[in-house]
Design brief:
The complex is a heterodimer of chains A (469) and B (367).
Chain A: E1 2-7, H1 11-22, E2 27-30, H2 55-70, E3 73-75, E4 79-85, E5 91-96, E6 103-111, E7 115-117, E8 130-131, H3 133-143, E9 150-155, H4 159-169, E10 173-179, H5 183-193, H6 197-212, E11 217-219, E12 221-227, E13 234-240, E14 246-255, E15 258-262, E16 265-267, H7 270-274, E17 279-282, E18 287-290, E19 303-305, H8 318-334, H9 346-357, E20 374-376, E21 381-382, H10 383-391, H11 397-404, H12 417-428, H13 432-435, E22 447-448
Parallel strand pairs in A: 1-2, 1-6, 2-3, 6-19, 8-15, 9-10, 9-15, 10-11
Antiparallel strand pairs in A: 4-5, 5-6, 7-16, 12-13, 13-14, 17-18, 20-21
Chain B: E1 4-10, H1 14-25, E2 30-33, H2 42-45, E3 49-50, H3 60-73, E4 80-81, E5 84-88, H4 91-106, E6 112-114, H5 116-122, E7 132-136, E8 140-141, H6 147-157, E9 161-163, E10 170-174, E11 177-182, E12 185-194, H7 200-206, E13 214-223, E14 233-236, E15 242-245, E16 251-254, H8 272-285, E17 293-304, E18 311-314, E19 321-325, H9 330-345
The chains are: A alpha/beta (469), B alpha+beta (367).
Chain lengths: 469, 367
């Protein structure tokens, strides 16, 4: 039995693990990646380890170095597929990974699973050559390769400019930058950004590098359709109004081979939801978030949340929120107040919120989706299928799902969930809280049946008698 | 002024919707009150098995009628008649299979015993370790996910009112009928029918009736789309496995392995130990399942009373309160018995007898 299992080895999870370990708790750190760093400080692939190091990579290396020195037990390339409460005896965690240990027990679980990307589906979004913005950064960090050919980079918030400048730095070609935000949106956040001059400077640097290379930046513009037969050949872009609805007659075709787009990040809450902890909807934090106290305690005893999955506040907040979650665990398990001085999060949270604010969905986005646009990629469900189900009486996420199969495929609804909720909101006028989310169920990710447990002999199967005649 | 309904049906599953439709046909104004969405409880999350081989002997004639109704619903509800095998892997299980299937056959089910070789020749992906087997050509399945979609459409077609997200918090006597509350919302009706499965215990308690209702927490899992591995539905002599591969390739694995939780706490949770045993048993029967991914596992509540027979009739002999719950094999039997229940409330003679909830309920026999 561990004192604490930490799920996710990004900046929040690693800091939580190290602090808990330093206070004498037995800790297990689990991540599906090859090494620690998460998405933001993702390690480079082994084959290019000698490539020049950037400042972000240095931060990741520093984190990994601290972890290596700590002797914390860790399992990489390991997926958590289940988290189950065992009465007052803590939690069982089901694992699927390279080693033989299929289940571990723990008194406490710190969940630091990070963020996932919000991508509004448009016609052509399933063509090869279309990537999420966050997905693009992950590929670039791991392989130091920019997307193929000429790229259009589109979306909201700071990520657009970061991705575009990274593509250029890695020798790729950016043919256009599109942002749904206006210059005014950014100007409004300026007073907050000044709180973190270093980050502001970094951001300005990205934009400057783009201006210097004379890359066109289209403000208040989005991808209307991605064009191509078997792969991306171009994209039709469109101006948007202040609600982000496409403006008629303001379209333009731009040839390209790659489209990188996304509309901000959402907390990855599947793990906290599986524990039964309460969640609520807060668009300023990126969407649905676990309801937590200031140290990250959820409504379920022994379950803690930190990092972007507890609210999209970015990498400046993540390490501190990880440390706080560790403190909460120490207090709860040892029954003592660690008395450690709390670092002031407020300023950094304010900055994080300002960045997230740039990506808060607006009502017009729904107009980007055509009737025949595929919303559920796993099951091939179009917008008109979903519209039909809602207008014929389905009033909740579960109802839409069971009536259409939308979200029943291997991704578990990860990619269509937000769009379905958006459509339900549009047709019924109900709030996101009322529409709800599909019931959380294991496995958190599809698992190969054979990896769940060791083989059992038929005679050892615990067959509990017979059903009544 | 509130509308006064002739009857409020509490519970929007197959039982409640089926009864409401029949009552409406018979001229009563009915309203269905559902705590979540129509067809999202046991009716919508069970494994969809329509098998005569797992029906109780005494309920066989109801199951045969129910099966006919599913067939009529057809594509709208994803009905498939595939035939089904029940398998035994030890001498003890083989004896059990013979004893039980013989009785079910006598009760009218179209069941025959088949040799293991014959099973393997029609289902070559099955384990070779089968010792005995029975077959029923009528067995099949429907798509339980479509329950909500289907019954919501039927209620609309027949102009039957329904309210979703109406979790009943109290039921009070009111003049000649009942006031049913959901927080501050209230519905007035002359009669009530409790048809809320595992939640009926709490509802009956609200009108002062204590019923020995318990809930089993059955586990179901589904895999990703797999290559064709079998085309009949499969069961186990003990009843602890049901499997079917749907047209889209996904495989549903059930069998009543127990999860955790109670209806009062909301939806149940899976129990990792029992889930794994359930999946291991499935893999034993179809070894090629080993490399298929499991996409989702869930639970649903199956209500029962100690004798495992339905509660279908007047609630505590009241003339304006009824209950329809605890029907073992309720998915198959539901469309039929709910129709009978409707007839009973309408004061008509029922085609087959119902099951008086005020009987002496004694612990049922487990073989």
């Amino acid at each position: 039995m561990f004192d604490v299992v930490v799920i996710g080895a990004g900046p929040a999870g690693v800091n939580a693990a190290i602090d808990a370990h330093d206070q004498g708790l037995s800790v297990l750190l689990i991540d599906e990646g090859r090494d620690a760093g998460g998405q933001v400080w993702r390690p480079k692939s082994a084959s290019i380890i000698k490539a020049p190091v950037t400042p972000t990579e240095q931060k990741g290396e520093h984190l990994r170095e601290r972890l290596r020195k700590s002797n914390i037990k860790r399992k990489f390339e390991t997926r958590v597929w289940h988290i189950e409460k065992c009465g007052d005896d803590g939690w069982i965690i089901g694992l699927s990974g390279p080693d033989d240990e299929k289940q571990v027990r723990s008194k406490a679980v710190i969940i630091a699973t990070g963020a996932q990307e919000r991508v509004i589906p448009v016609n052509g979004w399933t063509l090869p050559g279309v990537l999420g913005l966050a997905g693009t950064t992950a590929l670039m960090k791991e392989n130091l390769l920019p997307p193929h050919g000429r790229s259009i980079v589109a979306g909201t918030g700071p990520l657009v400019f970061y991705v575009a400048s990274e593509i250029l730095r890695l020798g790729g070609t950016v043919t256009a930058i599109l942002t749904l935000n206006s210059k005014l949106d950014w100007f409004k956040e300026l007073p907050t950004m000044i709180l973190k001059p270093q980050l502001l400077f970094q951001g300005l640097n990205w934009v400057l590098s783009l201006y210097l290379k004379r890359i066109p930046i289209y403000w208040r513009t989005g991808i209307k359709t991605v064009e191509g037969d078997n792969a991306v050949e171009g994209a039709t872009i469109t101006k948007v109004d202040k609600n982000w609805a496409p403006k008629q007659g303001h379209e333009k075709y731009i040839p390209c081979e790659s489209v990188c787009y996304g509309q901000g990040l959402m907390p990855e809450i599947s793990a906290t939801r599986l524990t039964g902890a309460n969640h609520h909807y807060d668009e300023k934090l990126g969407g649905w978030v676990p309801t937590i106290d200031e140290l990250g305690r959820t409504s379920e005893k022994g379950i803690y949340a930190c990092g972007d999955n507890a609210g999209i506040l970015g990498v400046t907040v993540a390490p501190i929120s990880g440390k706080r979650a560790a403190r909460a665990v120490i207090e709860d398990l040892k029954g003592e107040n660690s008395g450690a001085k709390q670092s002031n999060l407020r300023m950094m949270q304010k900055f994080g919120r300002a960045m997230t604010a740039l990506s808060i969905s607006r009502s017009g986005l729904i107009k980007f989706i055509d009737d025949q646009t595929e919303i559920c990629r796993c099951e091939g469900i179009t917008k008109s299928d979903i519209d039909h189900e809602i207008t014929h009486g389905a009033q909740s996420h579960n109802a839409v799902k069971s009536g259409t199969r939308c979200g029943m495929g291997p991704c578990g609804g990860r990619f269509c969930m937000d769009t379905v909720a958006m459509l339900t909101e549009y047709h019924t006028g109900k709030t996101r809280e009322v529409i709800g989310l599909p019931t959380a169920r294991p496995p958190l990710r599809p698992v190969i049946l054979d990896t769940l447990s060791d083989d059992l002999d038929y005679d050892d199967l615990p067959i509990p008698g017979v059903s009544p005649l | 002024m509130n509308v006064i309904f002739d009857i409020a049906v509490i519970g929007g599953g197959i039982m409640g919707c089926g009864a409401a439709l029949r009552l409406s046909e018979g001229g009563m104004s009915a309203v269905v009150l559902e705590q979540s969405d129509i067809g999202q409880g046991a009716s919508g999350v069970n494994a969809g098995t329509l098998s005569m081989q797992i029906k109780r002997v005494k309920l066989m004639s109801y199951a045969i009628k129910g099966h006919e109704m599913w067939e009529e619903m057809g594509d709208r509800i994803g009905f498939h008649r595939t035939g089904g095998y029940t398998l035994a892997f030890s001498d003890k299980e083989a004896d059990l299979l013979h004893e039980r299937m013989t009785m079910k056959k006598e009760a009218g089910a179209n069941i025959e015993f088949v040799s293991p070789d014959k099973v393997i020749s029609s289902e070559p992906h099955l384990t070779k370790k089968i010792i005995a087997a029975s077959y029923c050509p009528d067995d099949g399945y429907a798509n339980s996910s479509l329950t909500g979609h289907y019954y919501r459409s039927r209620l609309k077609e027949h102009d039957v009112s329904y309210m979703e997200k109406f979790g009943v918090t109290d039921i009070l006597e009111h003049e000649d009928g009942w006031k049913i509350f959901s927080g501050t919302k209230v519905v007035v009706a002359k009669r009530i029918l409790l048809a809320a499965g595992g939640w009926c215990k709490k509802l009956a308690g609200m009108v002062g009736v204590d019923l020995p209702i318990r809930a089993r927490i059955n586990t179901v899992s589904v895999t990703e789309r797999a290559p064709l591995l079998f085309s009949s539905i499969l069961g186990h002599a003990t009843g602890l496995l049901t499997m079917k591969q749907k047209e889209n390739g996904t495989i549903l694995i059930g069998g009543g392995w127990q999860g955790k939780g109670t209806p009062e706490q909301g939806r149940g949770q899976i129990d990792i130990k029992n889930l794994i045993a359930n999946l291991q048993l499935a893999k034993f029967v179809i070894p090629d399942l080993a490399n298929i991914r499991v996409v989702r596992s869930w639970t649903g509540f199956e209500a029962n009373v100690p004798d495992f027979y339905p509660l279908a009739g007047k609630l505590a002999n009241m003339d304006n309160a009824f209950i329809l719950a605890c029907v073992r094999g309720g998915y198959t039997i539901g469309p039929y018995i709910s129709k009978l229940m409707g007839d009973f409330i309408l004061g008509k003679e029922t085609e087959m007898p119902l099951f008086d909830p005020s009987r002496d309920i004694i612990e049922g026999r487990l073989i």
